[in-house]
Design brief:
It contains 3 helices and 3 strands. With 87 residues, it is of the alpha+beta class. It has a 3-stranded mixed sheet with strand order 1-2-3.
Length: 87
């Protein structure tokens, strides 16, 4: 597959990366990690894109959470004192 590109331990020089970018992107999308080097020193890493978590759906927890009627009432004095370090 790599007739013109010498891929040594998934490391290529920058000129090879520019020339064969589409092939390198295919490898990265398949799970490979490609290190791009300049003058033999690694300068960049090409990896597959992963989205930042699941998409949130409004109302997904409807009916699963209950908030008591006294939720916003002041806390008892003993509990407030323990938060202030006055036990």
């Amino acid at each position: 597959m790599w007739t013109r590109l010498s891929l040594v331990m998934n490391k290529v020089n920058i000129h090879q990366a520019k020339t064969h970018l589409s092939r390198l992107v295919e490898l990265a999308a398949g799970g490979e990690e490609i290190i791009i080097a300049k003058s033999g020193k690694p300068v960049a890493r090409l990896v597959a894109y992963t989205p930042k978590g699941a998409v949130r759906r409004p109302g997904a927890m409807r009916g699963k959470i209950r908030i008591k009627k006294n939720f916003d009432e002041p806390l008892p004095k003993e509990l407030l004192a323990s938060f202030a370090g006055k036990t």
